[in-house]
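wait is this the right file?? whatever heres the structure
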């Protein structure tokens, strides 16, 4: 009788751990590789000059965002972005925003991501293009949507992976090889950007927000460009620590059950 009680308790604990694992994976997922869109279609990101925060720092041409088949990390398509900064800018940066509303809809705009996991994507900065620095901005909209689905355009915006205002930490060096960029959201430096609730902390009542923009600066402010990048395979992946804890718990439960059965 006592053994049956112990086994039942072990079963309940195992179920709890499995539910925790399910919840962790529910906040992860592949967002897009741009395969299901037509060439030149504006997807996920607006054109570089769209955002009023940085449009005054940019030349009007080139300013392009569109699906292309010239390069791809996987499949046959990716997203191409072209821009050029104006000369003599003190602290030039680009807010490549995902902004989308009911009256100004963008496919995959405001894509929902988890603030408790890792967010990553692949970037190609072709040889001959000046180097850049890269971060992201997250909108704290308390999204209840699945990963990748469109969130809202309301809520505070935080710079993530930035040590100051529009001061990203990732350096992307020009290369003809694709490079993976990843942000471990619970561990990244955060700086308030916009909105009354932005406070330099990533916060959400649902554990989710949305990718508001890529934050891009030149490594050399005097290097105005032009710049071209290709983006592909955006995804939210599990934070290693949570998976390790869940896996360790399950292994422990299994080992305990085996020992009890042998006793």
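ok assuming it is, sequence goes like this
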């Amino acid at each position: 009788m006592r053994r049956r009680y112990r086994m039942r308790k072990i079963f309940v604990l195992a179920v709890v751990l499995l539910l925790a694992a399910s919840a962790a994976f529910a906040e992860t997922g592949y967002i897009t590789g741009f395969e299901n869109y037509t060439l030149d279609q504006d997807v996920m990101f607006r054109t570089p000059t769209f955002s009023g925060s940085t449009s005054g720092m940019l030349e009007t041409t080139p300013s392009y965002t569109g699906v292309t088949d010239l390069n791809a990390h996987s499949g046959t398509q990716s997203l191409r972005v072209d821009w050029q900064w104006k000369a003599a800018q003190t602290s030039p940066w680009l807010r490549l925003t995902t902004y989308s509303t009911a009256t100004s809809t963008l496919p995959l705009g405001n894509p929902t991501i988890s603030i408790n996991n890792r967010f990553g994507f692949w970037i190609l900065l072709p040889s001959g293009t000046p180097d850049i620095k890269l971060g992201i901005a997250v909108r704290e909209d308390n999204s209840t949507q699945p990963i990748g689905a469109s969130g809202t355009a309301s809520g505070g915006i935080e710079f993530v992976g930035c040590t100051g205002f529009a001061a990203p930490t990732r350096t992307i060096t020009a290369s003809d090889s694709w490079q993976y960029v990843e942000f471990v959201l619970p561990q990244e430096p955060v700086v308030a950007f916009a909105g009354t609730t932005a406070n330099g902390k990533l916060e959400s009542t649902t554990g989710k927000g949305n990718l508001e923009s890529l934050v891009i600066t030149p490594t050399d402010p005097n290097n105005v460009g032009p710049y071209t990048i290709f983006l592909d395979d955006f995804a939210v992946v599990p934070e290693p620590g949570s998976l390790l804890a869940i896996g360790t718990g399950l292994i422990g439960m299994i080992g305990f059950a085996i020992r009890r059965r042998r006793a």
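The longest strand covers residues 208-218. so i think its the right one actually
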